[in-house]
TrEMBL record:
Keywords: Hydrolase. The keyword Hydrolase applies. One of its GO terms (molecular function) is hydrolase activity. Gene3D superfamilies: HAD superfamily/HAD-like, Putative phosphatase, domain 2. This is HAD family hydrolase. SUPFAM superfamilies: HAD-like. The keyword Hydrolase applies. It holds the Pfam family Hydrolase.
């Protein structure tokens, strides 16, 4: 094992899960159609996912733009007069200064091999978040760098080529079964699923390894490095 590829949000730093329900309630309070907050969240996620999976190559759009566009579509669908650009400011601010998991810094300090961050969030946002928590790693590759998002292979391929590694010399760690686990495996790289929330694993996805936190990852890596 010569290097580690590491997801950032949901793995090292907190996702925006606490902010999203607040946005759903604001939309619900201003909508002209009867709906639940769950329905608003589901529609927004579907709208975002449709744009997300079409965003690569010449059609690439930054995460911030995808967020605003999908939220605007959601507001239009539920007939709310709120403006997406102002409604999601707290969410976008979170990306630049998220909370950090207690085991993240000790994990990074314990490693004796290079760590490379592979993130779907925009370059400026993830670098701001890393600066906020004094996180230093050997390198960072984002969706903006490769004009593509995990689980597509471009980000993994770029990391392998840029840092002069072989696919059997690295392992990717991330919290998303699709973006991180399937993405890495499809690129020929083994993956550790960081299952912090104790989620049930669907039958169609099989991580190479599963850990409940980064402390458990450390113990696993000690046997390989």
């Amino acid at each position: 094992m010569k290097a580690i590829f590491l997801d950032f949000y949901g793995t090292v730093a907190h996702e925006d899960d606490d902010i999203l329900p607040v946005i759903y309630k604001q939309v619900q309070a201003t909508t002209q159609v009867e709906c639940t907050t769950d329905e608003i969240g589901a529609y927004w996620w579907k709208a975002f996912s449709t744009l997300f999976y079409a965003s690569h190559g010449s059609q690439f759009t930054t995460q911030r733009m995808l967020n605003v566009q999908s939220l605007a579509e959601t507001l239009l669908h539920f007939k709310s007069e709120l403006q997406a650009e102002s409604l999601n400011q707290e969410q976008l601010a979170h990306w630049r200064n998220p909370g950090i998991f207690a085991d993240s810094i000790p994990f990074l300090h314990s490693l004796k091999i290079p760590v490379y961050i592979l993130s779907n969030i925009d370059t400026d946002d993830v670098k701001a978040a890393m600066k906020a928590h004094n996180i230093e790693v050997a390198g960072v590759i984002t969706s903006e760098d490769v004009r593509s998002y995990k689980p597509r292979s471009e980000m993994f391929d770029e990391a392998i080529n840029r840092y002069g590694l072989q696919r059997d010399e690295v392992i990717h760690i991330g919290d998303s079964l699709v973006s991180d686990v399937q993405g890495a495996q499809n690129a020929g790289i083994k993956a550790i699923w960081l299952n912090r929330k104790g989620k049930l694993k669907p039958q169609q996805i099989t991580p190479d390894y599963e850990c409940k936190d980064l402390g458990e990852v450390v113990h696993m890596l000690e046997a390989w490095i």
